């Protein structure tokens, strides 16, 4: 029981730290505005990550392309790992570090957005994707842990959660990701209009 209480308390403490950070809240609003601008210009939002971050990337992409709170038109958003034939072919023929960068080359356009998710900020394939996206004139948003890792040097917006605890970082990535989805949906499809 005590261990469970500590886990929940640690999660609450980190979320409270983010809540009490005007810089993080302002950054989240700026990111939401960039996404709105991208969608209004007929752009797309691409996501990438590994493991739990891949699952979170897919979840957030589905919130945009499906719906969040209410029925509305779909928004072009995709998690880059969902084609397993592609991922395994490129990982085998080139390297695992190339899987996302090659898709960015094919799908990314100037003004599109890449959201790279990595708690360490050092995942080789996500770093390469960010670098490729920058080369192509995309806007890069890095969702990382405390240090930002290598991703801090190749992004436009660094959402570095102030923690080194992977599960807690991922929980806050989803909290802020959901907040962004809600804000974007409301701005793109205002109710009553």
Topology of helices and strands:
Layout: H1 2-19, H2 22-40, E1 45-48, H3 52-65, E2 77-79, H4 84-93, H5 99-107, E3 113-117, H6 124-135, E4 139-144, E5 157-160, H7 166-188
Textual characterization of the structure:
The protein is α/β, with parallel strands linked by helices. Helices cover 54% and strands 11% of the residues. The protein is built from 7 helices and 5 strands. The chain has helices at residues 2-19, 22-40, 52-65, 84-93, 99-107, 124-135, 166-188, and strands at residues 45-48, 77-79, 113-117, 139-144, 157-160.
Enumerate the strands of the largest sheet in spatial order, edge to edge or round the barrel.
2-1-3-4-5
Q: Describe the biggest sheet?
A: 5 strands, parallel
User: Which parts are unreliable, with pLDDT below 50 for 5 consecutive residues or more?
Assistant: none
Compute the average pLDDT: 97
Looking at the chains present, what oligomeric state does this protein adopt?
single chain
| Structure summary, number of beta strands | 5
Quickly give the structural class.
Answer: alpha/beta
Shape label: globular
Helicity level = 40-55%
Radius of gyration: 16 Å
Reading the helices and strands in chain order gives HHEHEHHEHEEH
Strand content: 5-15%
Helices, by number, come to 7
Distance between the termini: 49 Å
């Amino acid at each position: 029981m005590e261990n469970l209480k500590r886990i929940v308390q640690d999660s609450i403490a980190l979320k409270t730290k983010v809540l009490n950070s005007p810089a993080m809240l302002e950054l989240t609003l700026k990111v939401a505005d960039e996404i709105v601008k991208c969608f209004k210009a007929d752009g797309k939002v691409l996501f990438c990550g590994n493991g739990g971050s891949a699952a979170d990337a897919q979840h957030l992409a589905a919130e945009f392309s499906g719906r969040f709170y209410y029925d509305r038109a779909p928004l072009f958003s995709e998690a880059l790992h969902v084609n397993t034939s592609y991922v395994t072919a490129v990982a085998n023929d080139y390297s695992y570090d190339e899987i996302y960068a090659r898709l960015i080359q094919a799908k990314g356009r100037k003004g599109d957005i890449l959201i790279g998710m990595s708690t360490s900020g050092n995942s080789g394939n996500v770093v390469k994707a960010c670098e490729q996206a920058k080369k192509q004139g995309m806007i890069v948003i890095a969702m990382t842990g405390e240090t930002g890792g290598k991703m801090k040097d190749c992004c436009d917006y660094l959402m570095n959660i102030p923690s080194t605890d992977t599960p807690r970082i991922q929980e806050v990535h989803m909290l802020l990701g959901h907040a962004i989805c809600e804000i974007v949906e409301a701005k793109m499809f205002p109710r009553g209009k």
